[in-house]
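pasting for ref
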Amino acid sequence: MKNKKFNNKVKKTIYALLTTAAIGLNACNKNDSAISLERKFETNFQEEKILTISAGNYCESVGKKLSDYRLVGVGAMNGKFRFKIPAGTEVIVDYRVTIDGDAFFGTSGYEAGTALILKTPQNKLIQ
């Protein structure tokens, strides 16, 4: 019984790592990698739902628990953040922007945040 629980945890951890690696490297295309994942993105996400507060503070403000959500890291450069938000995202929390550059090379920006996706039987990948 103990080994079965351990094996399930190991499987879930490996799946989470592979999923994160594939998404982070944009290896979701069947032609690019042995790992094939279908990834859907929000197409009309409201800017009002991109927040700088923490996930815990957001959950407290809406009366839910953090364990009710899947947390997915989102990051993009140069204004492409909105196109990287996973489908089903309720809100983006811990949103940060880093702008770097100088007069010679110009500027570039990196945006990062955490997508909170409400766990449902349809989207529950990792428990």
